[in-house]
Amino acid sequence: MKSNSAINEFEDLISLKTMKFNSLNTILLLLAIAIFSLLQSSCSPKATFRIIDKPITWNQEREELSLQYLKTRHGLEQKTASIAPKMVVVHWTAIDNIEVTFDVFDPATIAGRADLTGASNLNVSSQFLIDRDGTIFRLLPDTTFARHTIGLNYLAIGVENIGSDAMPLTKKQLKANEELIRYLERKYAIDYVIGHHEYQNFQNTELWKEADPDYRTVKTDPGDAFMEKLRKNLSDLNLKPVPTL
Protein backbone atom coordinates (compact mmCIF):
# COMPACT_ATOMS: atom_id res chain seq x y z
CA MET A 1 0.00 0.00 0.00
CA LYS A 2 2.81 2.36 0.85
CA SER A 3 4.36 1.60 -2.48
CA ASN A 4 1.14 2.42 -4.34
CA SER A 5 0.72 5.61 -2.32
CA ALA A 6 4.21 6.76 -3.21
CA ILE A 7 3.59 6.05 -6.84
CA ASN A 8 0.34 8.02 -6.77
CA GLU A 9 2.07 10.98 -5.09
CA PHE A 10 4.82 10.88 -7.68
CA GLU A 11 2.27 10.80 -10.54
CA ASP A 12 0.39 13.72 -8.98
CA LEU A 13 3.65 15.68 -8.75
CA ILE A 14 4.47 14.95 -12.40
CA SER A 15 0.95 16.00 -13.42
CA LEU A 16 1.22 19.27 -11.48
CA LYS A 17 4.60 20.10 -12.98
CA THR A 18 3.27 19.31 -16.45
CA MET A 19 0.31 21.63 -15.89
CA LYS A 20 2.64 24.41 -14.75
CA PHE A 21 4.93 23.80 -17.69
CA ASN A 22 2.00 23.94 -20.13
CA SER A 23 0.69 27.10 -18.49
CA LEU A 24 4.09 28.74 -18.77
CA ASN A 25 4.29 27.75 -22.44
CA THR A 26 0.85 29.23 -23.02
CA ILE A 27 1.84 32.50 -21.35
CA LEU A 28 5.06 32.69 -23.34
CA LEU A 29 3.17 31.95 -26.55
CA LEU A 30 0.59 34.65 -25.85
CA LEU A 31 3.37 37.11 -24.97
CA ALA A 32 5.18 36.32 -28.22
CA ILE A 33 1.97 36.85 -30.21
CA ALA A 34 1.37 40.19 -28.49
CA ILE A 35 4.92 41.38 -29.20
CA PHE A 36 4.67 40.27 -32.83
CA SER A 37 1.35 42.07 -33.26
CA LEU A 38 2.80 45.24 -31.74
CA LEU A 39 5.83 45.15 -34.00
CA GLN A 40 3.68 44.46 -37.03
CA SER A 41 1.41 47.37 -36.16
CA SER A 42 4.31 49.76 -35.63
CA CYS A 43 5.92 48.72 -38.91
CA SER A 44 2.75 48.81 -41.00
CA PRO A 45 2.76 51.40 -43.78
CA LYS A 46 1.08 54.71 -42.98
CA ALA A 47 -0.05 57.51 -45.28
CA THR A 48 2.88 59.85 -45.83
CA PHE A 49 2.49 63.53 -46.59
CA ARG A 50 4.01 64.19 -49.99
CA ILE A 51 3.72 66.73 -52.79
CA ILE A 52 4.01 65.63 -56.40
CA ASP A 53 5.43 68.27 -58.73
CA LYS A 54 3.32 68.61 -61.88
CA PRO A 55 4.34 72.02 -63.23
CA ILE A 56 2.18 74.01 -65.59
CA THR A 57 3.81 76.13 -68.28
CA TRP A 58 5.83 79.05 -66.97
CA ASN A 59 7.41 80.89 -69.87
CA GLN A 60 8.33 84.46 -70.71
CA GLU A 61 4.78 85.26 -71.78
CA ARG A 62 3.32 84.10 -68.49
CA GLU A 63 5.99 85.94 -66.55
CA GLU A 64 5.30 89.20 -68.42
CA LEU A 65 1.52 88.84 -68.07
CA SER A 66 1.93 88.16 -64.36
CA LEU A 67 4.12 91.24 -63.88
CA GLN A 68 1.58 93.28 -65.82
CA TYR A 69 -1.25 91.94 -63.66
CA LEU A 70 0.65 92.80 -60.48
CA LYS A 71 1.15 96.34 -61.75
CA THR A 72 -2.25 97.15 -63.28
CA ARG A 73 -4.54 95.16 -60.96
CA HIS A 74 -2.64 95.22 -57.66
CA GLY A 75 -0.63 98.42 -58.09
CA LEU A 76 2.65 96.61 -57.49
CA GLU A 77 5.66 97.06 -59.73
CA GLN A 78 7.98 94.11 -59.30
CA LYS A 79 11.01 92.67 -61.08
CA THR A 80 9.85 89.08 -60.58
CA ALA A 81 6.38 87.58 -60.49
CA SER A 82 6.63 86.38 -56.92
CA ILE A 83 4.59 86.65 -53.74
CA ALA A 84 5.25 86.85 -50.01
CA PRO A 85 2.55 84.47 -48.75
CA LYS A 86 0.31 85.60 -45.91
CA MET A 87 -2.80 83.70 -46.88
CA VAL A 88 -4.01 80.38 -48.27
CA VAL A 89 -7.17 80.43 -50.39
CA VAL A 90 -9.01 77.11 -50.76
CA HIS A 91 -10.92 76.55 -54.02
CA TRP A 92 -12.72 73.87 -55.94
CA THR A 93 -12.31 73.45 -59.65
CA ALA A 94 -15.89 72.86 -60.86
CA ILE A 95 -14.18 70.29 -63.12
CA ASP A 96 -14.39 66.62 -62.16
CA ASN A 97 -11.12 65.47 -63.72
CA ILE A 98 -7.59 66.36 -62.69
CA GLU A 99 -6.07 66.03 -66.17
CA VAL A 100 -8.70 68.31 -67.70
CA THR A 101 -8.08 70.79 -64.90
CA PHE A 102 -4.35 70.68 -65.57
CA ASP A 103 -4.98 71.31 -69.28
CA VAL A 104 -7.15 74.33 -68.41
CA PHE A 105 -4.47 75.87 -66.17
CA ASP A 106 -1.48 75.01 -68.37
CA PRO A 107 -1.60 77.71 -71.12
CA ALA A 108 -0.17 81.12 -70.31
CA THR A 109 -3.23 82.94 -71.66
CA ILE A 110 -6.92 82.50 -70.97
CA ALA A 111 -9.63 82.08 -73.60
CA GLY A 112 -13.40 82.03 -73.60
CA ARG A 113 -13.94 83.88 -70.31
CA ALA A 114 -15.13 87.39 -71.08
CA ASP A 115 -15.61 88.10 -67.36
CA LEU A 116 -11.88 87.50 -66.85
CA THR A 117 -10.20 88.51 -70.11
CA GLY A 118 -11.50 92.03 -69.65
CA ALA A 119 -9.16 92.34 -66.67
CA SER A 120 -6.20 90.44 -68.10
CA ASN A 121 -5.27 87.78 -70.64
CA LEU A 122 -3.23 85.99 -67.98
CA ASN A 123 -4.64 82.50 -67.43
CA VAL A 124 -6.05 81.46 -64.08
CA SER A 125 -4.11 78.91 -62.05
CA SER A 126 -3.03 78.07 -58.53
CA GLN A 127 0.08 76.85 -56.83
CA PHE A 128 -1.49 73.55 -55.71
CA LEU A 129 -4.13 71.10 -56.94
CA ILE A 130 -5.62 68.27 -54.83
CA ASP A 131 -7.29 65.24 -56.37
CA ARG A 132 -10.34 63.44 -54.96
CA ASP A 133 -8.13 60.83 -53.26
CA GLY A 134 -6.09 63.49 -51.47
CA THR A 135 -3.07 63.44 -53.79
CA ILE A 136 -1.39 66.85 -53.75
CA PHE A 137 0.14 68.27 -56.92
CA ARG A 138 2.29 71.40 -57.05
CA LEU A 139 1.61 73.32 -60.27
CA LEU A 140 3.85 76.29 -59.49
CA PRO A 141 6.52 77.00 -56.87
CA ASP A 142 4.97 78.14 -53.58
CA THR A 143 5.98 81.78 -54.00
CA THR A 144 5.35 82.16 -57.74
CA PHE A 145 2.45 84.44 -58.60
CA ALA A 146 -0.81 82.83 -59.70
CA ARG A 147 -4.12 84.36 -60.71
CA HIS A 148 -6.81 82.75 -58.56
CA THR A 149 -8.39 85.30 -56.19
CA ILE A 150 -9.36 88.86 -57.09
CA GLY A 151 -7.65 91.48 -54.91
CA LEU A 152 -5.47 88.99 -53.04
CA ASN A 153 -3.30 87.15 -55.57
CA TYR A 154 -0.18 89.08 -54.58
CA LEU A 155 -0.08 87.48 -51.09
CA ALA A 156 -2.16 84.31 -51.43
CA ILE A 157 -1.26 80.72 -52.17
CA GLY A 158 -4.09 79.04 -54.05
CA VAL A 159 -5.15 75.44 -53.36
CA GLU A 160 -7.54 74.02 -55.94
CA ASN A 161 -9.53 70.86 -55.17
CA ILE A 162 -11.26 68.63 -57.72
CA GLY A 163 -14.91 69.19 -56.82
CA SER A 164 -18.00 71.34 -57.28
CA ASP A 165 -21.43 72.13 -55.80
CA ALA A 166 -22.62 68.78 -57.13
CA MET A 167 -19.45 66.97 -56.05
CA PRO A 168 -18.55 68.03 -52.47
CA LEU A 169 -14.95 67.71 -51.39
CA THR A 170 -13.95 64.41 -49.78
CA LYS A 171 -12.60 63.48 -46.34
CA LYS A 172 -9.26 62.68 -47.98
CA GLN A 173 -9.19 66.16 -49.52
CA LEU A 174 -9.96 67.65 -46.12
CA LYS A 175 -7.00 65.80 -44.63
CA ALA A 176 -4.74 66.76 -47.54
CA ASN A 177 -5.68 70.44 -47.24
CA GLU A 178 -4.91 70.35 -43.52
CA GLU A 179 -1.52 68.71 -44.03
CA LEU A 180 -0.61 71.05 -46.89
CA ILE A 181 -1.58 74.16 -44.94
CA ARG A 182 0.43 73.00 -41.93
CA TYR A 183 3.41 72.50 -44.25
CA LEU A 184 2.97 76.01 -45.69
CA GLU A 185 2.42 77.59 -42.29
CA ARG A 186 5.77 76.21 -41.11
CA LYS A 187 7.51 77.84 -44.10
CA TYR A 188 5.74 81.18 -44.41
CA ALA A 189 4.02 83.82 -42.28
CA ILE A 190 0.50 82.55 -43.01
CA ASP A 191 -2.10 84.63 -41.16
CA TYR A 192 -5.30 83.58 -42.94
CA VAL A 193 -6.86 80.46 -44.41
CA ILE A 194 -10.02 81.33 -46.33
CA GLY A 195 -12.47 79.82 -48.76
CA HIS A 196 -12.70 81.42 -52.19
CA HIS A 197 -16.30 82.36 -51.40
CA GLU A 198 -15.02 84.55 -48.54
CA TYR A 199 -12.55 86.68 -50.50
CA GLN A 200 -14.79 89.78 -50.74
CA ASN A 201 -14.74 90.06 -46.95
CA PHE A 202 -11.27 91.60 -47.36
CA GLN A 203 -12.44 94.53 -49.53
CA ASN A 204 -12.33 96.99 -46.64
CA THR A 205 -8.99 95.83 -45.26
CA GLU A 206 -5.46 97.04 -45.98
CA LEU A 207 -4.71 93.71 -47.67
CA TRP A 208 -7.12 94.33 -50.54
CA LYS A 209 -5.47 95.43 -53.80
CA GLU A 210 -7.73 95.63 -56.84
CA ALA A 211 -7.69 98.67 -59.10
CA ASP A 212 -11.25 98.26 -60.43
CA PRO A 213 -13.95 98.70 -57.76
CA ASP A 214 -16.43 96.85 -59.96
CA TYR A 215 -14.29 93.83 -60.82
CA ARG A 216 -15.80 91.02 -58.73
CA THR A 217 -17.01 87.47 -59.30
CA VAL A 218 -19.48 85.55 -57.13
CA LYS A 219 -18.02 82.32 -55.74
CA THR A 220 -19.45 79.45 -53.68
CA ASP A 221 -16.32 77.33 -53.32
CA PRO A 222 -15.53 75.44 -51.22
CA GLY A 223 -18.46 76.34 -48.99
CA ASP A 224 -18.96 77.11 -45.29
CA ALA A 225 -19.29 73.46 -44.22
CA PHE A 226 -15.88 72.48 -45.61
CA MET A 227 -14.16 75.58 -44.23
CA GLU A 228 -15.69 75.03 -40.80
CA LYS A 229 -14.21 71.52 -40.66
CA LEU A 230 -10.85 72.70 -41.99
CA ARG A 231 -10.58 75.56 -39.50
CA LYS A 232 -11.52 73.23 -36.64
CA ASN A 233 -8.67 70.90 -37.66
CA LEU A 234 -6.28 73.87 -37.82
CA SER A 235 -7.46 75.58 -34.64
CA ASP A 236 -4.10 75.04 -32.90
CA LEU A 237 -2.41 77.32 -35.46
CA ASN A 238 -4.31 80.34 -34.08
CA LEU A 239 -4.93 81.83 -37.52
CA LYS A 240 -6.62 85.19 -37.85
CA PRO A 241 -10.41 85.17 -38.38
CA VAL A 242 -11.94 86.23 -41.69
CA PRO A 243 -13.07 89.89 -41.49
CA THR A 244 -16.79 90.57 -41.51
CA LEU A 245 -18.33 92.90 -44.07
- Please give the order of strands in the largest beta sheet: 1-4-3-5-2-6
Strand content: 5-15%
**Cα radius of gyration in angstroms:** 30 Å
Number of helices: 6
Q: Structural class from helices and strands?
A: alpha/beta
Distance between the termini: 104 Å
> What is the H/E order?
HEHEHHEEEHEH
Q: In terms of per-residue confidence, which ranges show pLDDT below 50 for 5 or more consecutive residues?
A: none
Helix percent reads 25-40%
DSSP, total strands: 6
Mean pLDDT: 88
> How is the biggest beta sheet arranged?
6 strands, mixed
Tertiary shape: elongated
Summarize the structure.
The protein has 245 residues and is an alpha/beta fold. 38% of the residues lie in helices and 10% in strands.
Provide keyphrases for this structure.
six-stranded mixed sheet; alpha/beta; 245 residues; 6 helices
Structure description:
38% of the residues lie in helices and 10% in strands. It is built from 6 helices and 6 strands. A 6-stranded mixed beta sheet has the order 1-4-3-5-2-6, with helices on one face. Strand 3 (128-130) and strand 4 (136-138) form a beta hairpin. The radius of gyration is 30 Å and the shape is elongated.
List the helices and strands and how they pair.
Layout: H1 2-43, E1 51-53, H2 60-72, E2 87-92, H3 98-105, H4 114-117, E3 128-130, E4 136-138, E5 156-161, H5 171-187, E6 192-195, H6 224-233
Parallel strand pairs: 1-4, 2-5, 2-6, 3-5
Antiparallel strand pairs: 3-4
Helix pairs in contact: 5-6
